[in-house]
Amino acid sequence: MSDVQVSKVSNQPSGNTTRNKGRKSLMGTRPWVAAVFLLPALLLLGALVVYPIVFSVYRSLFDASGDGFVGLGNYGEMFSDEGIRTALKNNIIWVVVAPTVSTALGLIFAVLTERIRWGTAFKLIVFMPMAISMLAAGIIFRLVYDQNPERGVGNAVWVGIHDTFADPAPFPGAKPRPNSGLRPSGGGAFTTTSAVRAASPANLPLVAVAPDDVRNAKPAAAAQPRPGKITGTVWLDFTRGGGGRPNVIDGNEKALAGLRIEAVKGGTVVASATTAGDGTYALPADKADGARLRLPAANFAEAYNGVDWLGPALVTPAIIGSYVWMWAGFAMVLIAAGLAGVPRELLEAARVDGAGEWQVFRRITVPLLAPVLVVVLVTLMINVLKIFDLVYIVAPGSSLRSANVLALQLFQSSFGTDVDEGLGSAIAVFLLLLVLPVMYVNLRRIRKERRR
Hints:
Belongs to the binding-protein-dependent transport system permease family. This is Sugar ABC transporter permease. Keywords: Cell membrane, Membrane, Transmembrane, Transmembrane helix, Transport. The chain crosses the membrane at residues 32-54, 92-112, 124-145, 324-343, 364-385, 423-443. Its main location: membrane. It is a single chain. The chain is built from 16 helices and nine strands. It is elongated. 53% of the residues lie in helices and 9% in strands. The protein starts with a helix and ends with a helix. The strands form two sheets. The protein has a five-stranded antiparallel β-sheet with strand order 2-3-9-6-7, with no helix packed on it. A four-stranded mixed β-sheet has the order 1-4-5-8. The chain has 452 residues and is of the alpha+beta class. It folds into three domains: 3-52, no CATH class; 73-156 and 309-451, MetI-like fold; 175-299, no CATH class.
């Protein structure tokens, strides 16, 4: 090639340079085109985001009426109020527990559903709660956590498990008939006022027995003296329709079977027996003669009614459980999508090299899914900081202060009984400041993904 040809070639602009100049020229000569397309979005952003933020910051500097300037006084009141401090503590619990548990369950479900035949159906079932609104989920779990085992599923299961391993009291709520010779002896037990002797039966009449507890009971039988035994009868001293005599076994009165009787001397149980189907019992006279008879509290303990899920102690964990029920499916779907992009040859190579399933999961699957796990975790953290409706619906009025969170406190301070929009705006600004670091982390992650 001659020098002239080389010179001509070198003087021609490259294709990339021409395209770059054309792109720059297009943006430089017609900026109004970009402005026209961006203007509606910018107007909406300013009206729905920027203006409320600026106004909230401004309003937080004034008192409840909006006329008196108080500076940072609302922020000081926010941190001195016990209810708001409880809300802040609960928010910390929510941010730490709810996203972590939801993400962990989503990871477990996503990994395990790859190995089962009906994995898609399982994913559908787990994801289905996402189709339910927070309001509907709150109503559902308000019923699930109901204290009454006949209505609340949680306590129905819990009571069933408890009663499987612990025998219920035979006659909960029963008590001695007045002037029957039995007196309370502490802890719900009853003891005879005088010592018993082998010469005469020691009868123990009770009242306040639930009709269902004696529906199939036999008629009470009068115990007869027996050599070497202390005998007696325990019965329901009540005749339906009236006409019975107090402290006397009448023909239609029911026996109380299965009651434990203890003979006590000097505070020590020396003998014990259980009443038979006809209400009678027998104790060895050589041990029980001269002792006092005691009916232990276990005979009369109220039926186990389950756990107070929505009480002050457990209301926050209970509501977090309902949140996890809804959002574990969301985490599972995102993680499953990320898992589909994991190179299978890496997993197979690790197994060929002798790695166990736990090692493959911990050292290969989880590190490769780290970007997806961060996305899920950050998304749920932002969502949890705004949690309001689930707490408002599930927590009963008696436990609402114990379950309080910042978003709920913002609503109560701004529109509740003590209307103070200045304090409510301060809480809103503080909540925004809590969300900003999480949003910053998310933005940095997005920028890194774009650079890749």
